[in-house]
Amino acid sequence: MDRLASMRAFVKVVEAGSFVRGADKLGISTTSASRLVAELEEHLGTRLLQRTTRKLHLTEAGQRYFDRALQLLSDLEEAENEVGSSTTTPRGRLRISVGQTFGVRQLSALFPRFQEKFPDVELEVFATDRRVDLIEEGFDLAVRMSLEIPPTYVARHMCTIRVVVCASPAYLEKHGTPKTPQELATHNCLTVPSGGFENRWLFTDADGGAQTVLVRGNYRSDSGDLLRAAALAGQGVVYLPTFILGDELARGELVPILREWSLPQIEARVVYPTRRFVSAKVRAFTEFLQQEFAGEPVWDRWMHGPIFS
Fold it and tell me: What's the rounded Cα separation, in Å, for the pair 271 and 131?
């Protein structure tokens, strides 16, 4: 049994939706394609495809095998291109996992620019705040803002994310502006339900002393955009990354408070599984993001405006 040929036949048949079209893409007969897939199923000891008169259906095992086989064939193609070409060209499918808010707000405009630069790369982007397993789920890389990176991953610095505590002018006019972190205990604080900042906000004073303030409020959400909207509506005080709030802070629609205290900073990184061979497409995308985010992020320009400088 030629395992590589069987794997390729299986992937092409699934992508084409039939043995006839899959065989045609491979340049072999339908009988040969059917035989290769049957040999693969026999070798694995499980059925990968449910065959009906009209359509093919992947079994649960078939779906898992398809995802991994597709990645393996893509890596093989990259390896062959790496060895066989003196000028490596990033190509093939690139599966990326990004956070929902950061992906939509700060990365969405960059994906088309990357593809203009590397037209042979096919992007497949999943925006989710769920922590994905890159290896098990077949992702090439992810953009993460986390202190905890598994030892099986490589992490490359992309940019530093600041956190700010702020509220709308209307809220501060009505309820007063807190002068110390402890005064936040008397304010309506809009919080996230999980992630480390649920009801404990961290501050560091000028001498380096850390303070943890217990806060409470009548509104919680796992969406930074929803909390931003609530703050704009004058509902309370938020403690969020500046990439969510930069535009509103620059326009004065939200006002930073307690600026004498330092707040945590988060490192945004590009992570990918540890491999001896890093594909050209992963390397190109990582370097592209590092170049795009070199220097101070655009969403922090409000800090140097006439209102805040």
Answer: 12
Taking the C-alpha atoms of residue 285 and residue 124, their distance in angstroms, rounded to an integer, is: 13
pTM, two decimal places? 0.68
Q: 146-183: per-residue pLDDT in tens?
A: 767 777 788 899 999 999 999 999 999 999 999 999 99
Rounded to an integer, what distance in angstroms lies between the CA atom of residue 82 and that of residue 91?
11
CATH architecture label of 161-265: 3-Layer(aba) Sandwich (3.40)
Alpha helices in 97-256 (DSSP H): 100-102, 110-117, 169-175, 224-232, 242-251
State the DSSP H helix or E strand holding residue 21, giving kind and residue range, or none if neither: helix 19-26
Measured CA to CA in angstroms, residue 272 lies from 71, 134, 147 at distances of 14, 7, 15
Q: What residues have CB less than 8 Å from 225, skipping those under 6 apart?
A: 101, 244
Hey, what's the torsion of the CAs at 168, 173, 174, 178, to 10 degrees? 80
CA 246 to chain centre: 20
Contact between residue 308 and residue 302 where contact means Cβ atoms under 8 Å apart: yes
Q: Do residues 262 and 158 lie in contact, with contact meaning Cβ atoms separated by under 8 Å? A: no
DSSP 220: B
Supply the Cα-derived Rg of the chain in whole angstroms: 25
Cα separation, 47 vs 52, in Å, equals 14
Per-residue burial over 60-83, b = 16 or more CB atoms within 10 Å of its CB, e = otherwise = eebeebbeebbbebbbeebeebee
Class (C level, CATH) for 92-158+267-294: alpha beta
Instruction: Please tell me the predicted confidence (pLDDT) of residue 164.
Output: 93
Residue pair 184/211 in contact (Cβ under 8 Å)? The answer is no
Residue with tokens 């609530």: 230
Encoding tokens for residue 1?
């049994």
Return the CATH fold of 3-84: Arc Repressor Mutant, subunit A (1.10.10)
CB 73 within 8 A of CB 65: no
